[in-house]
Structure formats: structure tokens, C-alpha cells
Amino acid sequence: MKASRLIFTLLWASSVAVVQLVAQQTKADRKPIEEVKVKAEAGDAESEVELGLRYDKGAGVVEDHAEAAKWYRKAAEQNHAEAQYNLGVGYYKGEGVAKDQAEAVKWYRKAAEQNDADAQYNLAICYERGDGVTEDWVEAYKWLLLAARQGHKAPKEHMILLESKLLRPEQVAQGQKRAREFKPR
Known about the structure:
The chain is mainly α and 185 residues long. Helix content is 76%, strand content 0%. It has 2 domains: 27-78, no CATH class; 99-185, no CATH class.
């Protein structure tokens, strides 16, 4: 009887400690999110993106793609490239906003023009497939080249396909020329 009472007491004490630890972690997690929210609500673009990312992933908040898109849009309208890219992804996938490839292209382009390699790659794929824009392999090649020059790994396979099967040599040269003439905003 005493042994079972001792075991019960130890189990109870350890469960109380676990509950207290979880409460402390939750409180600690909440403080940073509250700080991020305050800054985001004050119009800080970096904090708006951070808040959008947290809602996208459910990090410290309940996952909510619509709320993520709201915060991305606020930062994107302040010309924040990462927010523009993330908003484009939302439109492309239909997460948090209605699926709209033309709108995705609009936001990808804004970020790509600021030299965001991920946006350049996604914009290239849109041109390659004709998603939200008229299919244009030369323009796709240009954006693939720009993303690859920044170390993005994925464009190489698409560039090989375009060079070997879809583009004539003069089109490859035109894509290279467009890439050389590109000036980030």
C-alpha cells in the first residue's frame, strides 16, 4: 500500500512539473508572437512577413492561410520581395486566397524584379507552362538564367530542356541577352 501511494505521489508530482513546464513554454512562445503582432500592426514590413510565416506554418498561432495572406499583402504592398513571393505562392496554390495564376504571376514578377531567386524561378515556370501568362520559352529561359546565377539549383534542369528541345540557338541567345540587360529594382 505504501509503495503504491509513493508511486502515485511521484507520478502526480512529475505530472504537475510537466504541466508547469508546458505552461512556461507556452507563455514564452506567446511573448515573441505578441511582440511580432505589435510591430506588424504598427506597419513594420519585416514583422508583417514574420507574422504571415507564423500563420502559414502554425508556429505559435493556429495555422491560418487567409491570415497569412493578409499579412503578406500588407508587407508586399510596402514592396517587400519575400512577402510578394509568398503572396504569389498563395495565389498559385489557392492557399488563403482564391487560386489565381495571373495574380500569382503579378506578385512573382514584383519579387523577381527585386532579384528574388525563388520568385525568378517560379516566374520562369509560369512562362514555361503558360500558367497565368502567355507561354514564352525565351522569357522563361531569361528568368531561369537569373535564378541560376544566384545559386538556385532547380533552374538547371529546365534550362537544359529548353536549350536542347524547345529553343532554337537564336532564342537561347535572345534569352541570354534579356538576362544580361536585366536590372533589379
